[in-house]
Amino acid sequence: MPYGTDGPSALLLGLLALAALLTAAGAAAAAALTAALTAAGAALTATGRAARHAGGNTGGRAGRGARRLP
């Protein structure tokens, strides 16, 4: 069987296609994870900023209008 007709090349093409598919799936998963973490970080930042601004129970941080100790 001459090389490049049936056997090794078909297997190689199949492996290359599988590698390309896995790479694309990994890139999509990484992009989705990055987007989710970015959104979660933005939400936490906004929540903390709003809590500090309101002067509520913010772990000892003084909000707007809070009395500052010397």
UniProtKB/TrEMBL annotation:
Region forming the signal peptide: 1-30
The reply on keyword Signal is: yes
Record keywords: Signal
Region: Disordered, residue numbers: 50-70
> What is the name attached to this protein's record?
Uncharacterized protein
Q: Which organism is it from?
A: Streptomyces griseoruber
